[in-house]
Amino acid sequence: MSASTDLPAKFDPSDPASFANPYPGLARLREHDPLHFDPHLRAWFVTRYDDNKALTQNLALSSDRLRPFFGSLADDRRRDIASIIRYLSRWMVFTDPPEHTRLRKLASSAFGVRRMNAMGPLIERRVHRLLDGLQGRREIDFIAEFAGPLPALVIMDMLGVPEAELARVKALSDRVALFIGSARLTPDKYAVAEAATRELADYFLGLVAARRGHPTQDLVSDLIAARDPENGDALTDDELVATCILLLFAGHETTTSLLSGGLLALLAFPEQIERLRAQPALAADAVEEFLRYDGPNLSQARVVAEPVELHGKTMKPGERVFLMLAAANRDPAVFERPDELDIACERAPHLAFGWGRHICLGFPLARLEATIAFPALLARWPAITRATDTLDWHASMVFRGVSAMPLQLDWHAGHRGRPHQRQ
Ligand code: HEM
Prior knowledge:
This protein has one domain: CATH 1.10.630.10. By secondary structure, the protein is α+β, with helices and mostly antiparallel strands. Helix content is 51%, strand content 9%. The protein is globular and about 55 Å long. Bound molecules: protoporphyrin IX containing FE (HEM). The site of protoporphyrin IX containing FE (HEM) has 25 residues, from helix 15 and helix 19.
C-alpha cells in the first residue's frame, strides 16, 4: 500500500460520509494542508486551533456574507426573498463592527446573569415534564421527543411565546434554516424560507406591539427597553423582530445537537457514561467536553474582506472561508488524546461557541440546559441503547447534527447499553 492510501480521505463536502464522520478527513487537512482550498465549494477550510482562534479576531475576515450575495441577485430574485433580506441583514451574526457592536451591545443587555439565574428553575421544569411524558416508553426518538422540544420550549419561554405555538414556531424556524445552513438541494428552499421568515416576522411584530403597550418579564420586553447608556440608542422595530428570529433560530437547533451529540458521545464511551451517572456534579465539565469532542457547529463561515496570508497562501477578497471549529477542537497541538471523550479532563478552552467578537451570545443558556438535562435523563434511564447504527447527519457546512436518534430505553436497573462506534 502506498503512503498516500494509508491516509484517510480528506474532508470532502460533496461526500455524505464526510458529514457522518468528518474527523479523520479534517485531521488529514489539519496535518497536511491546514489552509485548504476546496474546489467543490470554492472556499478555504482553516483547520488548526491557533489559526481559527486568530482568524475569528481578524477584521480582514468579514461576517457580512449575506449582503454581497443579496447584492448579486437580479431585482426579481431580490423581491422573491424580500423578508429574508429585510430581517437577516439585521442579524448581528451577519454584521461587522460598528453595526455588530451596536446590535450586540443592545441585545446583551437583555441577556445577562439575572435572566440566566431566572431560567434555571424553568429549564428544570421543562426537562422533567418532557421526561415525565416519556415515562415507561421503551423506544423513543431522542430528537423529536426530547432534544428538539427542550431548547425550543426554553427559548420560547424566554421570548414570551406561548407553548401552544411550539409546533408552528419550530416548523417556521426549521424552514428559515433552509436558507442558512443546508447544503442539500431543495428546489424551492428559498420560497419556503421566505414564507417562513414573513410569518415569523408578522408574529414577532405582533408580540413587540403588545409588549410596547404592556411590558412583562420576558426577553422581548427587555429588548424593547434596552438602551445604550451613553446615547440612549435603542433597537428599531425591524431590529427587534430580526433579533427575536435570530434568538429563536440560534437558540434551539444548536442546543438540540449538543444534547444529541453529547448522548451519542457518552454511548460511544460507556466508561464515561458510568462516570457521569456516579458523579452528576461532573455535568458542567462533561458538557464542555461534549462541545469540544463533537460540537453542534462544524464551522463558522466568513468572507475575505482584505487579503490574508497564511501558510504561504493568500486568501483573496470575496473568497469564502470556513473556520472549521470541529477540526480546531481536535487539534493534537492543543488537546491531549483529542479523539477521546474524557468528561473530567482539564483542557484548553474549546472553540465550539466560536471566539472573539461573535462568540455565541447564548452560550450560558445552552450550557445551563445541557447541564440540567444530562443528570436528569441519566437518573431516569438506567440503560440507554442506540436503536440503529446508522444516523442521518445534516449535510451542512455549518450545523452538525442528526435529524433523528432512535433509542431503546431499559427502565430496569442493571442492564447496560452496548458501546457504539467512536468518531
Ligand atoms: C450548544 C449550543 C450552541 C452553540 C454550539 C452555538 C454556537 C455559536 C457559534 C459558533 C456562534 C458564532 C457564529 C459566527 O460567528 O458565525 C454563535 C453565535 C450566536 N449564538 Fe450561539 N450557539 C449555541 C446556542 C445558542 C443559544 C441557546 C442562543 C440564544 C438563545 C444563541 C445565540 C447566538 C447569537 C445571538 C449569536 C450571534 C452572536 C454575534 O454574532 O455576536 N446560541 N453561536
